[in-house]
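Hi R.,

Here's the chain you asked about this morning:
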Amino acid sequence: MGSSFKSRINKEEVIEIIGQHPVYQWLELFAKIESFLIIKNERIKYPQAYLAQRLFSGSVLRRISDYSLNKAFFFSFGQLNILRKLVIVYGNNVLGDEIPIPLVSISKALLAAQDFHNEYDENAHRPEDFENFCQFVIRNGYLNSIPDAPNLFVRTYQMYVLLAQNLPFDANKDFGSFFKEKVGITVEQTISLSFALANPFFQHEGQVFNQTTIINPETFFKHLQIDQAAIETIVGSLTISFSEVKEMISKELVGIEIGTIPAGYNLDIFRKTPLIRFDNGKLVCANLSSLLQKATQNIIWLPKNQAKNLTKRETEKLVNDLTSFRGQLFGEYIKDLCNIMQSKNRKLSYLYIPAEATQDHEEVGDSILVQGDSMIVFEAKSRQFNELFKYTGDWEHDMNFIEELIRKAVEQIERAVNKIREGGVDKFSLKQDVIKKVYPVIVTYEPIPMHAKMQRFIRQRVRELGLLTNSVFSPLEIISVNDLEEVIDCVDSYTIIDLLQDKHSLSDPHKNEANFNNFFSSFTEHNTVMSNGWQRWRWDQFTEKVFKENFIFKK
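And here is the predicted structure, written out as tokens:
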């Protein structure tokens, strides 16, 4: 897109542009842009075009007007991440009066950064090279698979508060008690505090660019009825000082051609510490998607962060305990979602077969849905992949990808189906001719890139392992929990089995290999699908139970 200026803008020119304004001013702008791309707004149908109108100068818009009519992508997360890093390393750290950044400077910086980001893919991606293509899909999938932001908070509350009440954390205490002992406040209060940090970005479109998202801890939290010491501790665990982050990113960028490294994909620093603290104590969001994830699904790690004076063995045990508990909670959450689907559409029957109901005393799948002569067997996988794998897409950096998500999960599904069909489950025996089709579905805690060739590669790997070869099995589907939640909203009209039957029909072979989220979006666009309001209902319940109790101001 740098061609909009007739020639590419080089790194030195961008450094000169960004040096004319304070670092925090640029970072706040990037966070606001990101909020428009991440947080759904029913009033803005095409956020890309909306932002272009707000941020590109008139001359630039005229040059690229043809693209804007075709829903062009003027803004990307990789582009914003590169600019953040350039600003942090080369920007002006003077904390003074703000002078509005000229639109032409914003335009040039954004368009040049898009070129830098695209250049890496030009060097690393070759269409004829399948391995490189898969890496391209993985790193883009992890960068761009941003789930619905409000859903992150609701799911966290459902799992770590409601479901955790009925699942013992250890022999001595429940998770809520353990969490408060280690962190200092309750899980509900922590979720509320986390939402307070993200709240400036949940605004009407006309307000976001007119108000600051820079947080002053001295005034931002003082009215909340949450222990101030605990607030400081939790916010501190999300924060990195400007000098420290500058030193770390300098090691990544200085002396390196930016188009030769995955700078736009590498969120390692931002995922760990999504807030930057400047010398005046004020906080700026370094990456909104990382803040949302750290503030929701990753609150499981807060007790570990606050644990002091532990030996290496004790630390390892705590990590294992938290990991195991998260896995158990996620499995319970999938059961809960299946129960809800059954309650909203009686074509579905939900089954959970515990270990004690089987002859060999082993659990049969995590959850099962039956509709007529078709059955889904779910395996829930809460594993999160390491950062190096996410931003390179190279399986060598996380070999457990194949082992965990393919071999282990698929073996569990196949073993469960065989056990059912062979009469190995007490009080639940289906003859071979009753179930005509089985849909094996792996549900992941975080989105897994499963586009086109990637889907084909995974299924090919399953065949090579000699799994799911019986004709009763439909091709493997890997979906995220967010996909399952979206299906519930329309389950009155179409069940997930209805959707999978359509996806795997022979009428359109492209549907078969499509990413489930893309397929579902296309399906709802071309079919009359009525929302049952479940998503909105649970958000309202969440705000009633969490926010109203913790966002009470002191008189």
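One quick note: Residues 312-344 form the longest helix (33 residues).

Cheers,
M.
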